[in-house]
Write a structure and sequence with these properties.
Structural class: alpha+beta
Order of helices and strands: HHEEEE
Number of strands: 4
Strand content: 15-25%
Helix content: 25-40%
Number of helices: 2
């Protein structure tokens, strides 16, 4: 189950009015449900993490989505929209007796 799905499952459903005229009781139930939904969303935005272990992080930002984390020389970095990352490329060619290798 994704984080978004678990949040959606904890937000209360908004009440529906069966009456053509909206009653005060309906408005009170609607306000209460909206307050509960706001509380759920606020509590999920401000979470505290006491321990985080990132293993096998990629060494570059190539082929990652915006918001993904990678490690560059031991420093954690986050892929941002405005950044451009190119994955590693390796190539080799032989020219006579000279070999050129790029990484």
């Amino acid at each position: 189950m994704s984080h978004a799905t678990s949040i959606a499952n904890t937000i209360p459903r908004l009440p529906r009015s069966d009456d053509i005229d909206v009653t005060q009781q309906y408005v009170d139930r609607l306000v209460s449900a909206l307050e509960d939904a706001i509380d759920v969303l606020s509590s999920t935005r401000h979470q505290s993490i006491t321990e985080l272990n990132l293993t096998n992080t990629q060494e570059h930002g190539g082929n990652l989505r915006v918001g993904d984390v990678f490690s560059s020389s031991g420093i954690l970095k986050i892929v941002r929209t405005e950044d451009i990352y190119v994955g590693p490329s390796t190539g080799a060619t032989v020219l006579g007796s000279v070999t050129v290798v790029t990484t």
